[in-house]
């Protein structure tokens, strides 16, 4: 189970990173989102993988590690805020530069000005 | 306390000229002088005590963990320099009052000058190495401001920059040296440092430390080979030159060497390096002083030369040599400040400082002529003036020093040579300006300056004469105090004009005669030197700085060429190398904990995740397809959380997934639907390999952690959640209680992101396509009936669910984050189903305040605990009983969670609703109301 989990995280990371290396804004945003999934999964697993652990305190029993969960919970929300910011930045860049290239320069080979 | 006031008064005085500059120049000058004058009086009041052997201290902890204390001392050495700094400073103020023209921003000038004065006072009074260094840097900065005061002039800017570069670089070296010194002595306290001289000398790091400290001192005091900045600093207004570059700032290096003398001077290395550098400076400065034709340049080079003389004496290091050094500090400050001010007067009244255009001024300015002549004679070392006395002492010491071993006989010879040159340039200065007939008329007819402008010069020249005549009566006390502070013991000495016929006297006579002869033949000398190519140190400096810049730029453009893709590749490569090194050194990958068994559901989940992830990457050129596959990954991640016992995370991920998808869909509407094929196969391969390898590293890392036993700190949270936080849902208790401060930071970031997006959308002009990428026109059926009616029915239900989730959050999965997201999703659904126009009419309030109020509520809840004497964000809870409802619990954490809820709702809607509004006339603009109609018109045009 652990190996399967690790492989999945690795594949998601690789796909996310590949997309962040693209030259246009939208794939980069998608890549960042994918990467944040992978990072969240990675962080979440730091407490170990608990099957059927209790989430609510109720006497002695097996509990999943709550600390990574709390950290990842905020990370998910912040990740959304950051994705939103980058995406709007990409729109703004397209409106200013006339193309959606990540370098944000006005260039001849880009698409015409909006 | 008095000490603190002496150091503080000038510092406070910095704001006085700024405040009073509007009330006339006379008032401003007087007010500015008041606080330094008070400081001077306070210093004078301490004199009797210090003469009696007292050494005053003041200490207050500042940053104890760094060893930085606000520690001040006032011993004989500090007093000597304090009198120079404050006394001459006041004279300079008086002089500057007349020197600056009324149109110049004198308030600013005074403020800089007093800032400089305060930092100098700080240097000489510091009782802590780090504090001393701070003041040291402050003098560099304030002198930069002063040299560049006439910032419209290129030479002033260049000179200021050069001075700052050289002294600033020296300051950094000094910091390193002082840190080493403090480490060697075990404390930054100067008393401790001075007492541990033996330990410091024995330390193997001594040569390094000495080199760094001396680098600081030599750059500041313009010692060879760093002398070049001082002549260019003469672009400053003359009061600045007179103050900084004769009396005070350049003496800071000298002061440092004297201050640290007991701790670091006892080695042969010290004597050889310091006395040789000093001697080189002495001769270099004297030589160029003889050749320059600009009055201030002559004085600047002669200053360099005299600083060299003092340095030689400190290098020799015998008690009498130290005494002579301190005496010469005093004497040089008096005659050189007087000479600079005279030069300023001549410049001011004739309009030129060029020797070639001056001459015969003794008729027009008889008093100034006499004053300048006397001061120059003191500089040359003519008997009956103060300069003579310290120069005799210098000659005496040069005769007896064993510094150069078998070559020590060279010292008196070189000293005499310096003396000859000094006589020659002093003579030239006076003769060329006042006595030689003028070759041409100066730019404006010369006349005497205002009476009070001359007063500082008169006072200083009087001091030169009086000290020269009655050295024992006037200088002994002060010098005794100062030398005692440096040497630690009282020195038996006797200052006198006449010591009988001896070798030093013979050297003086030789210097005088040969100096006159040199000046007489100096025309031939200049003709001979014309054959040499002259080097402008400013050009050399500028060239080297520029070539350094060019090279730095070359290196920089290799890494920073403006291509984000390249940055990313570098970044990933770096993390690959770091991660790879870490993994390689780790040993076996699988730890002691074995694998848990895999079942079919897990396998299916992992397969879907991998399919989604790879699919997203492969189809990235077809953006909509890619996005849909991305949402598969998001949903599967949510299920993964649920599978591994994290219901809170699963709920959060699910709701965030919904808003993320809506957001990306909306964004995609405004962006091209397809990505052009751009990357070369080579680039593609590089990226695949790079990303793939990193994925491999991450997978290995994750596996390594998962198969190892770890000792989590979560036991604390599990144990304390109910007794400490009053909640059964540990995750929520961590968020709102244990780590509440983190959460506060996070919702603040969330609100800020929302605000930033609002700002970015402001006046955004977007290209809105009327068809999709394939050329298909968007469906005219904008608001599908089913969605419309369902959304209406869903809204109250969703709000109810969100209230439920919020309320139970403390004890069951849920909480502010999730509830906020659910509310936001419900409202967004309304926007989508009925359109912005419809929703806008019914939800007519801005979301920015909601987010801000949320953050404010959370912060205030945290602050509230202060009222009860608890640390920030301490939570309280209690169980209450109400009839009908029964037992229930109220916690302040709930209030905090309400803040989280509002911040999440506000920020999410601020982002999505505002983005949605861009498509309509409600889009955010600065003047929303006036321009919305116009924007509407423009939009319809664009849409066509």
What does this protein look like?
The longest helix of chain A is centred in the C-terminal third of the chain and has 32 residues, at 66-97. Chain A has 114 residues and is mainly alpha-helical. In chain A, 62% of the residues lie in helices and 0% in strands. Among the domains of chain B are: 267-530, no CATH class; 611-675, no CATH class; 728-766 and 780-923, no CATH class. Helix content of chain B is 73%, strand content 3%. Chain B is built from 39 helices and 4 strands. In chain B, α3 (25-51) packs parallel to α5 (106-125), α7 runs antiparallel to α10 (206-220) and α16 runs antiparallel to α17. Chain B starts with a helix and ends with a helix. In chain B, 48% of the residues are buried. At the A-B interface, α1, α2 and α3 of A face α27, α28, α29, α30 and α31 of B. Chain A: InterPro entries: CPA3_antiporter_subunitC, NUOK/Mnh_C1-like. Chain A: The chain crosses the membrane at residues 6-21, 28-50, 70-91. Chain A: It is a multi-pass membrane protein.
List its traits.
heterodimer, A: Helix Hairpins, 3 helices, elongated, disordered C terminus, B: 944 residues, mainly alpha, two-stranded antiparallel ribbon, 4 strands, NUOK/Mnh_C1-like (chain A)
Secondary-structure map with pairings?
The complex is a heterodimer of chains A (114) and B (944).
Chain A: H1 2-20, H2 25-44, H3 66-97
Helix pairs in contact in A: 1-2, 2-3
Chain B: H1 2-13, H2 15-20, H3 25-51, E1 56-63, E2 68-74, H4 76-99, H5 106-125, H6 129-147, H7 154-185, H8 190-195, H9 197-202, H10 206-220, H11 229-232, H12 238-247, H13 249-259, H14 261-264, H15 268-291, H16 295-316, H17 319-350, H18 361-364, H19 366-380, H20 386-400, H21 410-435, H22 451-469, H23 471-487, H24 503-520, H25 522-529, H26 537-559, H27 564-584, H28 600-618, H29 623-643, H30 647-670, H31 681-706, H32 714-725, H33 730-738, H34 740-761, H35 785-808, H36 816-842, H37 848-867, E3 877-882, E4 886-891, H38 892-917, H39 928-943
Antiparallel strand pairs in B: 1-2, 3-4
Helix pairs in contact in B: 1-3, 1-5, 3-4, 3-5, 4-5, 4-12, 4-17, 4-22, 4-23, 5-6, 6-7, 7-10, 10-13, 12-17, 13-16, 15-16, 15-21, 16-17, 16-21, 17-19, 17-20, 17-22, 17-23, 19-21, 19-22, 20-21, 20-22, 20-24, 21-24, 22-23, 27-31, 28-29, 29-30, 30-36, 30-38, 32-33, 33-34, 34-37, 34-38, 35-36, ...
Main location (chain A): membrane
Protein name (chain A): Na+/H+ antiporter subunit C
Transmembrane segments (chain A): 6-21, 28-50, 70-91
